[in-house]
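stage 2 :: seqdesign
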């Protein structure tokens, strides 16, 4: 079931119809000119078949190169900061606006006999100009930006919360990329791959400039169509229809599966449940969070097995404190130790810390069961994950995906996933804020039982969380600790306006 879309202005519908007709008329006109009687003869000629084979070969190789090189390039442009980043992005996207002939001249200037690289390569016995390799290079040069633009746009539009969640569950950067980022990018990657294949398949100007037109070597289907346009117009039309058919097949094959929604990994067989052991005892946590750009300067020590709640108005630095502990925010002067071991220089996946936010960040391509099993190892990992879900009363939803869960159900699964990782420290950033009252009561009760042996740092705006979960409360204002103590003492003293409201209303 899909929610009903908001209405579209009638003017937009009219313009859309005109645009669709304008796009369809040339295609219909081309197909109308095809002579069915001569079509088999024209398409099976030696020149046509040779050009088709060469086009499919070079385009396929160019597409593979673009995907293998373009995805890492897009990832770096979207996620890394370095001097000259804007210039680098502009350079990568430059072929999008270059006339094809100019692109061909640029490629030839690089790989030609007198080119920047060509002379050196020729001395080594490698000649690229006017070869099949030159065709592939030209296609990669003009097509790569389409994939980079598609994938980078998807990455920049994503908040990276899933990646952070995966890292704090113990996944290395490579594991995060392959198991979380790449599946999430599947629609954008598919779209970019289609654009790359289509652009490379139809490339003409750069190819003829950099590689020439040698039958069986560099004469791709677009070049064959151009040459036959003067000598055999019917043959040119037939080959154009063939090129159109190939492009349509590629689009249908690539986009066909997306009609049923985003890519999801098919769930494995349903395992028997294995009794889940209680979370391991937590470790002592010591943190000095100094983040000048956010106005945060906090020093906090938490004993092993203690739950400390951090409260304060929005912007007080609560989430920044958790991010420093998790390794998501780095700043000079910060110090973090877990179990007496300094971890401030360790990456998030090596800190033994699990971060759970109010959004949960369940991985959309995995079922609830596979989400919980994400951090587990061994052949019985899914069986143990089912045991964790059972402890939280979430076993019934194990085969559902994230978008098939209610807010309360998703919160339970997210808690199960965090606890299944057996972290030394659990970080909870308003984990119940998105739940209704009834769901929050149930999940809070489950947390109170399961978190008892854990070391927990909890950010909340709800006095019920303090009463049910916290051993101690720390109050932050403008990045500083202004009060701390037991829950009754802090709420009774009411040293800040925020705490006064929190104690009187139960939430703030």
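stage 2 :: out
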């Amino acid at each position: 079931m899909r929610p009903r879309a908001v209405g579209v202005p009638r003017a937009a519908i009219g313009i859309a119809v005109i645009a669709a007709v304008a796009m369809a008329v040339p295609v219909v006109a081309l197909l109308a000119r095809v002579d069915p009687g001569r079509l088999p003869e024209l398409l099976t000629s030696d020149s046509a078949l040779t050009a088709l084979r060469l086009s499919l070969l070079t385009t396929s190789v160019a597409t593979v190169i673009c995907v293998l090189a373009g995805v890492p390039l897009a990832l770096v442009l979207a996620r890394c900061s370095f001097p000259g980043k804007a210039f680098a992005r502009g350079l990568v996207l430059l072929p999008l606006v270059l006339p094809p002939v100019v692109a061909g001249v640029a490629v030839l200037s690089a790989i030609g006999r007198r080119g920047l690289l060509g002379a050196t390569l020729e001395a080594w016995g490698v000649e690229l100009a006017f070869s099949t390799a030159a065709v592939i290079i030209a296609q990669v040069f003009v097509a790569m930006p389409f994939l980079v633009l598609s994938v980078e746009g998807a990455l920049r539009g994503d908040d990276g919360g899933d990646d952070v969640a995966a890292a704090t569950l113990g996944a290395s950067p490579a594991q995060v990329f392959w198991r979380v980022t790449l599946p999430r990018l599947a629609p954008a990657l598919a779209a970019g791959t289609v654009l790359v294949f289509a652009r490379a398949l139809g490339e003409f100007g750069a190819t003829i400039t950099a590689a020439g037109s040698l039958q069986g070597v560099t004469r791709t289907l677009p070049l064959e169509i151009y040459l036959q346009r003067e000598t055999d117009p019917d043959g040119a039309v037939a080959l154009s229809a063939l090129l159109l058919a190939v492009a349509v097949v590629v689009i249908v094959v690539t986009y066909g599966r997306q009609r049923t929604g985003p890519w999801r990994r098919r769930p494995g067989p349903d395992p028997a449940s294995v009794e889940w052991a209680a979370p391991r005892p937590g470790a002592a946590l010591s943190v000095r969070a100094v983040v000048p750009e956010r106005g945060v300067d906090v020093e906090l020590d938490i004993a092993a097995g203690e739950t400390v709640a951090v409260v304060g108005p929005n912007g007080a630095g609560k989430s920044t404190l958790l991010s420093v502990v998790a390794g998501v925010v780095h700043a000079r002067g910060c110090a973090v130790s877990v179990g007496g071991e300094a971890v401030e220089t360790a990456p998030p996946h090596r800190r033994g810390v699990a971060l759970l936010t109010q959004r949960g960040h369940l991985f959309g391509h995995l079922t609830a069961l596979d989400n919980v099993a994400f951090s587990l190892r061994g052949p019985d990992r899914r069986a143990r994950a089912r045991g964790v879900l059972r402890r939280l009363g979430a076993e019934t939803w194990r085969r559902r995906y994230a978008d098939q869960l209610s807010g309360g159900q998703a919160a339970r699964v997210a808690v199960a996933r965090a606890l299944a990782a057996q972290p030394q420290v659990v970080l909870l950033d308003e984990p119940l804020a998105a739940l209704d009252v009834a769901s929050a009561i149930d999940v809070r009760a489950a947390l109170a039982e399961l978190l008892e042996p854990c070391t927990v740092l909890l950010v909340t705006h709800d006095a019920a969380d303090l009463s049910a979960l916290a051993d101690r409360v720390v109050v932050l204002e403008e990045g500083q600790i202004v009060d701390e103590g037991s829950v009754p003492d802090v709420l009774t003293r009411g040293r800040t306006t925020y705490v006064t409201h929190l104690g009187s209303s139960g939430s703030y």
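stage 3 :: structure notes
- The domain at 285-505 is CATH 3.40.50.300 (Rossmann fold).
- The mean pLDDT is 86.
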